[in-house]
Specification:
about 300 residues; alpha/beta; nine-stranded mixed β-sheet; 9 helices; about 35% helix; globular
């Protein structure tokens, strides 16, 4: 009997220790009062979705790093907005430009990571962002970005930032340009959990399917619904099927009425992508809970 009691006591202590050890991964850290997000790191200033872009955003004091993810042929999670190599700013491994008609030959989901990282995504002049500093870069893995960011924060004694990670997917390209939602989410969460950053993670998407998988399988992870349609808040939430922590509309869709409706349901509103300081000020004064911008240096003018 005494042995049984000892075993029960040991099991209780072990379970308690495991529970306390797991607790931090189950609770999201509180968001800033006003969330300043660097879009694709600092897209207007550095090559987008690269380690240099993320570190530049940290230097500028953002509270959140926004980024896009794709999946490679060998199931690695990489940072990239486009599902293929974009001729606007990507060069072939030999330094030559990619003919626009050939871009679909370089779909990331059909390429292994080693091959992807032979393409230069930082030295070609990008006409859409003339202020962007040209730095030889490649598409990094999400794991490498997290490692670089966390090391930079520790070295420079900077506060912990949030990671706003987008799943780039849509039904028409399942298993062609990316895996189906369940696999995409699983691969993404494996990296996030391995790196132990779950409390500081937001998963955003236009694809409600990935958010639904997250809500069902990882209910402790904060979600953000990206919106660019003209539907009402109620219509978009009905399609989603649950209430996300964040509603992230194209900034021109933001109105006082939308803000009021979201706040009444406890939803934060963080618009994208706002690249003029006057517009950032206007939206902040209106009551937006944060801003996503290509130029995080603009936050210093608030």
């Amino acid at each position: 009997m005494r042995r049984i009691l000892h075993l029960i006591l040991f099991a209780s202590i072990t379970l308690s220790a495991c529970t306390s050890k797991m607790a931090p991964t189950q609770q999201s850290a509180p968001l800033p009062d006003f969330d300043t997000e660097g879009h694709r790191g600092a897209r207007g200033l550095m090559p987008e979705n690269t380690v240099p872009a993320m570190l530049r955003a940290l230097d500028l004091g953002v509270t959140t790093l926004e980024m896009d993810t794709q999946i490679t042929k060998d199931k690695q999670v990489v940072l990239s907005h486009d599902p293929h190599m974009n001729p606007d700013y990507v060069l072939l491994p030999n330094g030559q430009e990619i003919p626009p008609a050939d871009k679909h030959r370089y779909a990331l989901y059909q390429m292994n990571l080693d091959e992807i990282q032979t393409f230069d995504i930082g030295t070609k002049f990008y006409t859409k962002f003339p202020e962007q500093q040209r730095v030889k870069s490649y598409k990094p893995t999400l794991a490498a970005v997290i490692d670089s960011v966390q090391q930079y924060l520790a070295t420079h004694k900077l506060p912990q930032v949030f990671y706003n990670i987008e799943t780039k997917s849509k039904p028409a390209s399942d298993n062609l340009l990316h895996p189906a939602p369940e696999e995409f989410v699983r691969l993404l969460m494996e990296v996030i959990e391995e790196k132990q950053i779950t409390p500081w993670v937001i998963i955003q998407s236009f694809d409600v399917r990935t958010l639904q998988v997250l809500h069902q399988q990882y209910p402790h992870v904060r979600t953000s619904l990206l919106v660019e349609n003209q539907k009402s808040l109620e219509e978009n939430l009905q399609v989603l099927g649950f209430t996300p922590e964040i509603y992230s509309p194209y900034y021109k869709l933001v109105t006082p009425e939308l803000l009021r409706a979201c706040h009444q349901q406890g939803i934060k509103v963080i618009p994208w992508t706002v690249n003029k300081v006057d517009e950032i000020k206007r939206l902040k004064q209106m009551g937006a809970d944060g801003i996503i911008t290509d130029y995080p240096n603009l936050f210093q003018q608030l």
